[in-house]
Amino acid sequence: MLKTKVGVKTKNNYKKGVNNMLWKDKYELGVPLIDTQHKELFRRVESFMQVLRAEDNWDEKIPQLNETLEFMKRYVVEHFRAEEEYQQSINYPGYEAHKEVHNGMVDYVKEVSKQYENSNYDEQLMQQFGGRLLAWLINHVAAEDQRIADYALKKGVNGND
Ligand SMILES: [Fe+2]
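Above: inputs. Below: predicted complex with fe (ii) ion.
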């Protein structure tokens, strides 16, 4: 098992993009649409990080980073909306607070991409953003989103709709 893991981490594979290495099945909420979107977010953020960490010149990375950034801006909003609709559908009590966390993230992504454009694609800014985005995604999906699943499960078990 260890051998396989070491084998996967060659530079070549890294460049080709071995995705979903950070995704864990325990992150699943048991809601197919949300789980699919979460996996896609992990996949995109990981490939974003792979581009950021690659040894190519910064100028060469800009088009790919910009494309992912544009995708993220649209997809994050779409995903948050779907997740919020799901929360409402099960009368999740943490809905308002959760929506605020989502809105805060959307504002942050918009603000950074505005700064990034204004700075003429500053590397430092994107490196910092990539790290924060990844940390946020893992923490959010592993903790805050899990509470939605916990509630749904409890509600299903208790049957008090
Ligand atoms: Fe969420």
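The chain has one domain: 32-158.
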